[in-house]
Each structure stands twice: as structure tokens, then as C-alpha cells.
């Protein structure tokens, strides 16, 4: 269950149906990340404690039922997919590799996931970023079998991956007093571990053919309800926000370095920190009323998920946060609009970096 800052990961690949002549006809999305972008993978992990397959999750999604998304409606990835004119891809664990649906996009994201394999260990089951890359490797092998080496290589080289991970590595790892990483490492050592691990993971993706990568940076984690609940004054925890800013800065520098070192790499950093902070500090500017607590009236000191016996707010569109960690559908739309219009992201592909378009209705699974 990452915080909403845990950015959603979406990778968009220009894939075809089986006829090679139709390559690049439409974007196909491959999503990597945590609970911000999980669309149901954890539902297929029987022992996972990071789940959202119960009411009230999905109440504002098409059909009004829980799908495994950690929000009341759409994820950021769902909204960006709709803006690109394609359906939101289904969870990897719901698919058979014999299914041609893998040619139309797959979501690998898993609630509780982190850059580090040990992150989220108390959720019992989840797909870490390394696990997700392995799942993509299986998918890529199957795509090659279906359409051939040349076409598959071309498709992967035209792909761009939108990756959003890191918040769980802090919220559900380093900042937890009973977990070892926070005791073993100093903050600078932990940052080095995160960035070094991420570099190896991005290099691995590059070897698998990824060239166009978008990494969605972290938002101000110190301002989410679960962190505010730990502050005596109920305000943002500023030292946590400082961690975020340092992490974002180092990831951006890493992407610049990899662009220089890896052949054909076009890696961009999508920065949502300022827009999310402004959402929190000035909610009325965006049509919201409340940003310091969640719509689902959860006890943010214990768990923080919206359980079936939780009491909902009167108007979900008034709130920036859905539960103690994740944004509402309405807040996701504001964030997605900003990322879609990001000029840095637009350098990776011209479909992005454009003025926000009207948001279409959510696509059903």
C-alpha cells in the first residue's frame, strides 16, 4: 500500500496487435509501481495484507465495485490512459501468457511494493520492483514469440515506461522503528542504497529493450494523513518532506546520468511535488475543501485503509485524500492533468507534454 506519493508507474509502449504493419498505431500501457497504480494484482496474491478488494474502494469507479485500486475511483494511470485514448491495462496476475491481451498492455503494479525487495515485508505478499521487472521480462519473451524478434525489439525500443516507486521504501520501511533498515543505515546510507538499487533496475530494463522511461517522483509524503496523525500539531512532517526532495533530486540526476551512458536512453523525471503540495496547501484553488484528513474517516494511527465499517464523508469530491495514504479520484485527475502537460515528459513522447484535455469517463476492466 504505498502512499499516493508513491507514484504510480505507467509505461507506455507503442505496440501492435499481431499484424506488424500496424505497429505504433496506438499506445499500449505497461504499468509498474505500488498501490498508487495497482489495479488488482494483489487480489491474486492470497496471503497479501495490502489489499483493497472490499467496499468502499471503487465506489466511484465504473460499475461501482472494488477492483483492487486503492482509491474510490481511478488511478492516475487510468486517467492518463484515457487521455491517450486506450483502455487501462489489466493486472498481470489476471492474465495468461497465451492471451493476446498482453499485446494490448499489462499492469504490474503491486500495493506495498518498493525499490528494495525488503520494503513492505509485513504485507506478506507483494511484487517488488525487481519482481515486476521479472514479470515484464516474461511478457517481453512471450511478445517475441508471438510477433518475432525484429518486431518485438522495435516495439520495446519505442516503448516508454512510467515508473513510480519509492514512497513505501520510506513510509513502510525506513521510517518504521521496528524494521531493520532504519536501524542499520543512516539516512545518507539509505539514500545511497535506494539510488544504487534503482540504477541497477533501470539498467536491467534497458537491457530488456526499454529506452523511453518516465519516473514519477514522490509527492510531499510528510503531508499525507498517516504522517500528520503522528505529528503533535497535526501539521506536515517537514523532515519527511525533506527526505522526498532529496530523493527526487537524486533520481533526476540519475536519469540524466543514464541518458548519457546508455545507448538510446531517453529517461525523464515527472515532478509532481509542487502540484500536490499546492493541492494540500490551497485545496479551494482546485475545487476541494479538505486536504488535512481523509474522506474515509479512518483511524490514521492504525492501518489507515478504508474498511467496510468505515464512515465516509458526505461529498467525496471535497477531499484530496481518500484514505490515510491515497488520493481521491478527483485529486488523481488534477495530478494526472499536470503530469500529462509536463514539458519534460513531453520530450520523451509528443503525446504527452500537451495541454490537459477533458477527462473521459473511466474505462472498465
UniProtKB/TrEMBL annotation:
List the Gene Ontology MF annotations in alphabetical order: hydrolase activity, acting on ester bonds
Keywords attached to this entry: Hydrolase, Lipid degradation, Lipid metabolism, Secreted, Signal
Lineage, top-rank taxon, reads Eukaryota
**One biological process term in Gene Ontology:** lipid catabolic process
**SUPFAM superfamilies this protein is in?**
SGNH hydrolase (SSF52266)
The residue range of the signal peptide is 1-23
Where is the protein localized? Secreted
Cellular component terms (Gene Ontology): extracellular region
Q: What is the first-listed, main subcellular location in coarse terms? A: secreted
PANTHER family linked to this entry: GDSL-LIKE LIPASE/ACYLHYDROLASE-RELATED, OS02G0732800 PROTEIN
The record's family statement is: Belongs to the 'GDSL' lipolytic enzyme family.
Name this polypeptide is given: GDSL esterase/lipase
Amino acid at each position: 500500500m504505498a502512499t499516493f506519493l508513491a507514484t504510480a508507474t505507467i509505461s507506455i509502449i507503442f505496440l501492435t496487435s499481431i499484424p506488424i504493419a500496424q505497429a505504433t498505431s496506438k499506445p499500449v500501457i505497461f504499468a509498474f509501481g505500488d498501490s498508487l497504480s495497482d489495479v488488482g494484482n494483489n487480489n491474486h496474491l492470497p496471503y497479501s495484507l495490502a489489499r483493497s478488494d472490499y467496499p468502499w474502494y471503487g465506489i466511484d469507479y465504473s460499475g461501482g465495485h472494488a477492483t483492487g485500486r486503492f482509491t474510490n475511483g481511478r488511478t492516475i494511470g487510468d486517467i492518463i490512459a484515457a487521455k491517450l485514448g486506450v483502455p487501462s491495462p489489466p493486472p498481470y496476475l489476471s492474465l495468461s501468457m497465451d492471451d493476446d491481451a498482453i499485446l494490448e498492455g499489462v499492469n504490474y503494479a503491486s500495493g506495498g511494493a518498493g525499490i528494495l525487495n525488503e520494503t513492505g515485508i509485513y504485507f506478506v505478499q507483494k511484487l517488488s520492483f525487481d519482481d515486476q521487472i521479472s514479470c515484464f521480462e516474461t511478457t517481453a519473451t512471450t511478445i517475441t514469440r508471438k510477433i518475432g524478434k525484429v518486431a518485438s525489439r522495435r516495439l520495446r525500443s519505442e516503448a516508454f515506461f512510467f515508473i513510480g516507486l519509492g514512497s513505501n521504501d520510506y513510509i513502510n520501511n525506513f521510517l518504521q522503528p521496528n524494521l531493520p533498515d532504519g536501524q542499520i543505515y543512516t539516512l545518507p546510507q539509505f539514500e545511497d542504497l535506494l539510488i544504487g538499487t534503482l540504477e541497477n533496475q533501470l539498467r536491467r530494463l534497458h537491457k530488456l529493450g526499454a529506452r523511453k522511461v518516465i519516473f514519477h517522483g514522490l509527492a510531499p509524503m510528510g503531508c499525507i494523513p498517516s504522517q500528520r496523525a503522528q505529528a503533535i500539531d497535526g501539521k506536515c512532517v517537514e523532515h519527511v518532506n525533506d527526505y522526498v526532495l532529496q530523493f527526487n533530486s537524486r533520481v533526476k540526476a540519475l536519469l540524466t546520468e543514464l541518458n548519457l551512458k546508455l545507448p538510446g536512453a531517453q529517461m525523464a523525471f515527472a515532478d509532481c511535488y509542487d502540484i500536490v503540495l499546492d493541492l494540500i496547501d490551497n485545496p479551494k484553488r482546485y475545487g476541494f475543501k479538505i486536504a488535512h484528513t481523509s474522506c474515509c474517516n479512518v483511524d490514521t494511527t492504525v492501518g489507515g485503509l478504508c474498511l467496510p465499517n468505515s464512515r465516509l464523508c458526505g461529498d467525496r469530491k471535497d477531499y484530496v485524500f481518500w484514505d490515510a495514504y491515497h488520493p481521491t479520484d478527483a485529486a488523481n485527475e488534477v495530478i494526472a492533468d499536470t503530469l500529462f502537460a509536463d514539458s519534460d515528459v513531453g520530450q520523451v513522447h509528443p503525446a504527452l507534454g500537451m495541454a490537459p484535455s477533458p477527462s473521459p469517463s473511466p474505462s472498465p476492466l
